[in-house]
Design brief:
Strand content: 15-25%
Radius of gyration: 27 Å
Largest sheet: 8 strands, mixed
Number of helices: 13
Structural class: alpha+beta
Order of helices and strands: HEEEHEEHHEEEEHEEHHHEHHEEEHHEH
Helix content: 25-40%
Number of strands: 16
Distance between the termini: 47 Å
Oligomer: single chain
């Protein structure tokens, strides 16, 4: 005899093979929101979703039932408590249904409710972001987001990493690009920052990497996982001003060690989502990208390829000679590759994930280890089909003189990095790390093309809510 249950419990009961005989009836009670209500005058069918499972529970009510009038009046968005008989259905679209005995209205949804029984465009849904999780697509997206976040923690915890937290407010710019959000308590900055809260210019963090390196010099293997901010005025489908980053840092490790860690982590995350979100992934494969499951399974079962930046430039140049059309066809060594170039390399050349290594030092950050050739750094980007770059990675420069040289060339204020510099003086060892934008891997795993659609309240240029 069941008492109060959730939709997830009922669907899992069916999936693992129920011990209940086909003609045995069990009473169940559950709460939820009405997705649809169909009634032909004598019998009605309510699709109820309680938030615990992607698929809806079908409730059946008949004319003459105690709650018939109430059930017949229910509209999309109404919240109810339902009590009835759990019945397995052979050969039906639904594996089971609930024959209602009693229903109680918990909350009536206003008739102006904008989510009706039809498909809504993504642009329209961005205008009502607070209601998006009530749709199939976004319920699936945010369930996968939750599972992916937990998978990241599980992966690193299972390997003995220490979870550390970097500050949200900081006095440095990890990337050295100056695209930061200033944090201030002053209304008038004409006199500078001497009277400000911290007495100096501070900003929202663009990365916790520099602080994670300090932890790695103690704990060896660490990771941070939290929000980061970029004041980059880029209004593309791949950029947001606020997003979440996981940033591991591993001591006594070079670039090869880092790439091996990335490959293991990506495969673990994909496998976890496929195992824990089968209904959601089936939906994405049907409604968003019909090749999604094939592509993800290919990634899990393949070895990630490696190509140098120089080889990539040569490959792209030959592709143009052979008639391949790029919007940016000016391919030359030293350029920063565009997304179209990255996608071509992993989709058409290696047909799978690709580590692109040894970039020109001028287009990468100051903290990356300089290679012996004097031209490149020990850095890599992981490129994946349909998305392009999702992870940036490098071995860190452990040589103090080379680090200072790189900072001076970029005109950086050395005084803002005194703690970071001192790490190279007190027992520094070779170490590496990478940054994975959570939203980027969500896009890859779900097939969703716009970063605004994997964040409930996206922060982009000109938008705030």
């Amino acid at each position: 005899m069941f008492e109060f249950v959730t939709a997830r419990e009922l669907f899992e009961l069916i999936q693992v093979g129920s011990q209940i005989e086909k003609d045995q009836l069990e009473y169940v009670e559950l709460d939820g929101w009405v997705r649809t209500n169909r009634n032909n005058g004598s019998i009605g069918f309510i699709e109820l979703n309680d938030g615990t499972y992607f698929k809806n529970v079908q409730l059946v009510y008949n004319k003459g039932d105690e709650s018939y009038d109430l059930c017949a009046s229910l509209n999309t968005g109404d919240a109810i408590n339902a009590y009835g008989v759990f019945k397995i259905t052979d050969g039906g679209k639904q594996p089971f249904e609930i024959i209602l005995k009693k229903a109680t209205l918990v909350s009536k949804c206003d008739p102006s409710y904008p989510l009706q029984k039809k498909r809504h465009g993504f642009e329209f849904l961005r205008e009502i972001a607070h209601l998006r999780p009530k749709t199939n697509t976004f319920a699936a997206v945010f369930r996968v987001r939750s599972v992916l976040a937990m998978a990241i923690h599980e992966f690193f915890q299972n390997q003995g990493f220490v979870y550390v937290n970097g500050p949200i407010i900081t006095g440095n710019d990890c990337e050295g690009a100056g695209e930061t959000f200033t944090v201030t308590t002053l209304d008038d900055l004409s006199k500078g920052y001497k009277d400000d809260f911290y007495g100096k210019h501070t900003n929202l963090t663009v990365s916790a990497q520099l602080h994670a390196e300090a932890y790695a010099q103690c704990f060896r293997d660490v990771y941070t996982f939290g929000p980061t901010f970029r004041a980059e005025k880029s209004n593309t489908v791949r950029h947001a001003a606020e997003f979440w980053m996981v940033e591991p840092e591993i001591a006594f490790a070079d670039l090869d060690d880092d790439m091996a860690l990335i490959e293991d982590m990506v495969k673990y995350c994909i496998t976890t989502v496929l195992e824990e979100c089968p209904a959601e992934m089936e939906f994405f494969n049907k409604m968003i990208d019909t090749s999604l499951l094939e592509r993800l399974n290919h990634v899990v079962n393949s070895k990630f390829e490696v190509m140098t930046y120089t080889q990539a430039i040569e490959t792209l140049s030959k592709a143009i000679e052979n008639g391949v059309k790029f919007e940016n066809k000016n391919i030359e060594w030293g350029m920063d590759l565009n997304s179209e170039h990255e996608k071509y390399l992993c989709e058409q050349v290696v047909k799978g994930p690709l580590f692109l290594i040894n970039y020109p030092k001028e287009i990468k950050s100051f903290y990356m280890k300089q290679n012996a050739d004097g031209k490149t750094v020990a850095a890599t980007d992981l490129l994946v089909p349909t998305v392009g770059e999702i992870i940036g990675c490098s071995e860190r420069e452990a040589d103090l003189d080379k680090l200072l040289e790189a900072m001076n060339i970029r005109g950086m204020n050395i005084d803002d990095y005194t703690d970071y510099i001192s790490l190279r003086k007190f027992g520094s060892v070779p170490h590496s790390g990478f940054g994975l934008g959570l939203e980027r891997i969500i896009m890859y795993v779900t097939g969703v093309q716009n970063i605004r659609d994997v964040i409930l309240y996206p922060r982009t240029v000109g938008t705030i809510s």
